[in-house]
């Protein structure tokens, strides 16, 4: 199971990097969302994947099997942060498109010595 | 020692931000008053915290909801963090004052104060936290607010640079989470003190070193370390002066703070490798930063490049890794927060008067604005490291450490950087304040520039004061560095706090 998920993470990263290397603003943001989902899956996988093992220790049971709850708490936090950043990024990309009249990063070039 | 006091640096800005948000659209004066009171209260709390840890024996710890150390989130404050919290409060107060008098209406009324205090909350949180995942969360709060501050006002340049800044930081946050996942997968904990304990017991340090270098990349991107500084000069040039001052003075230092914390507490198993890489990065950061500064003809552009070159000195102190060099590094961060913020604020006043940031369009301001000119010169000399200003002592300590270790190539790099710093600061002075008087825009006549200066001069006086009181300051810094070099005290203090829940 871990191996499958690892391959999935790899695919997500590949898609994310590919999208981020393109020149359109929207693609860059979608690419970064893929990247962050890949990392979230990675966080989940480091906690080992087990089925039907709630993180509650029952008294009297020797060597209890349970899922580590911390990665899930971390993922929840990271999802919220990723959501906020992506939402902000989309708004910013839209404003850039409105004001600068282009969504091509190549045409957004410029340096501060010019003005 | 367990205490609730150290939550206040996070809670005060948080409540101020909320209150200011509700006052949106009303008279801006109310928001200003609240912002001012909050900034001063934060300063008072920071001084109180400092007075409790200053003896070098106590580390203040707060366990969230009474959960004992490795299980719950902890906040922990030693001398290093408390110094940072004091400085950020001072810098914030000075920047806020300048924002009161120079910010344009549209920006100021558009949620400037709420966002400002959100960023303060993130920065203070990064300084006081004792949990590395919590550090990530605090970084994100800080970054989220910094995106908004960066783009506030929606000028074309701001939009363009903010987008780059946003994407870069999104990538670095992703890398941060990857590093955290690796660390958690190996160690099963994210509490910094617990990590330090467990990592010191690992025999094969190779994977840990890989993890350490990923953290170096993450904090290096935030702190603008070679070769990850390319985004900084453009981003910091676009926003108005009080915001640029906050960014240039404080944001990069949070990255450096995190780096010093992590590389003195957690990743010390393979110092010969990791800290040599830090040292090499430091040399390149210093030299390339200052060369960039020489090539610029834009006031803020030069200052932005100096932000980079000064970060080089700080991590040089970390890379040398002795008590004396770490004390120098902490001193350097403290100084840079004051000096760099001050310089950006001077730039803001100059830009307010001349209406431009281009050096070639300014000239001869010294006749009409002597205080501005001489004040700027003193601050610039402090940056370049001329005695008796505070910049000299921090530079001296870092370089002295290089001599003690016998590392002469880094000393050479530092000295060359110092020379070129002096050169490029005098370039600003000659272009802007000396020479022929160039015509000023009409609006310059109506500006009462005496009102604009107190923020800058408060920081200048502080810099002079630290320079004159270098002896006692150094003693406290040595205590801070001792704590950093011997993390046992920190670890024990965090782990010893009993939980309320059994």
Overview of this protein structure:
The complex is a heterodimer of chains A (115) and B (502). Chain A has 115 residues and is mainly α. Chain A has a single domain, classed as Helix Hairpins (Orthogonal Bundle). Chain A contains three helices and no strands. The longest helix of chain A is centred in the C-terminal third of the chain and has 31 residues, at 70-100. Chain A starts with a helix and ends in a 15-residue tail after the last helix. The model of chain A has no long low-confidence stretch (mean pLDDT 85). By secondary structure, chain B is mainly α. Chain B has one domain (5-489). Chain B is 76% helix and 2% strand. Chain B contains 22 helices and two strands. Chain B has helices spanning 8-22, 28-53, 79-102, 105-109, 112-128, 132-151, 156-187, 192-200, 206-223, 232-237, 241-265, 271-295, 299-320, 323-354, 365-368, 370-384, 390-405, 408-432, 449-452, 454-468, 470-485, 488-496, and strands at residues 60-63, 74-77. A two-stranded antiparallel ribbon of chain B has the order 1-2. Chain A binds chain B through residues 20, 25, 28-29, 32, 35-36, 39-40, 42-43, 46-47, 68, 70-71, 74, 77-78, 81, 84-85, 88-89, 92-93, 95-96, 99-100, 108, 110-113, 115, and chain B through 133, 137, 140, 144, 147-148, 151, 154, 156-157, 159-160, 162-163, 166-167, 170-171, 173-174, 177-178, 180-182, 184-185, 188, 190, 233-234, 237-238, 296-298, 300-301, 357.
